[in-house]
Amino acid sequence: MRKYKKKKEKIGIVISNKMKKTIIISETKRIKHPYYKKVILKRKKYYVHDEYNISNEGDLVKIIETRPLSKQKFWRLLKIVKKYVTTRIKN
């Protein structure tokens, strides 16, 4: 019987949804510098397949690893964790 690796999952914020069926998310990690011991924010961008274009900029989403879908897309949208809500003040 074959053993399959568990697929990686990540959580990030949608920074762009301008393309068809593709979103770009940004994952932020907090790491401590090995020498200076200061906390540093490291960001990484991922191109994610969004089949039905359901996510918008600012949404917190969960993605999962998949086979290569294009030159840059190796992830697909699993679910939207939290929708981004804008509040406008009317004058």
TrEMBL record:
Keywords recorded for this protein, A-Z: Ribonucleoprotein, Ribosomal protein, RNA-binding, rRNA-binding
Keyword Ribonucleoprotein: yes
Highest taxon in the source lineage: Bacteria
Subunit-level organization: Part of the 30S ribosomal subunit.
One Pfam family matching this protein: Ribosomal_S17
Coiled-coil zones: none
Gene Ontology terms: cellular component: cytosolic small ribosomal subunit
GO biological process annotation, one example: translation
CDD domains given in the database record: Ribosomal_uS17
Protein family per UniProt: Belongs to the universal ribosomal protein uS17 family.
GO molecular function: rRNA binding; structural constituent of ribosome
Function: One of the primary rRNA binding proteins, it binds specifically to the 5'-end of 16S ribosomal RNA.
SUPFAM superfamilies per the UniProt record, alphabetical: Nucleic acid-binding proteins
InterPro entries (alphabetical): NA-bd_OB-fold, Ribosomal_uS17, Ribosomal_uS17_bact/chlr, Ribosomal_uS17_CS
Name of the molecule in the record: Small ribosomal subunit protein uS17
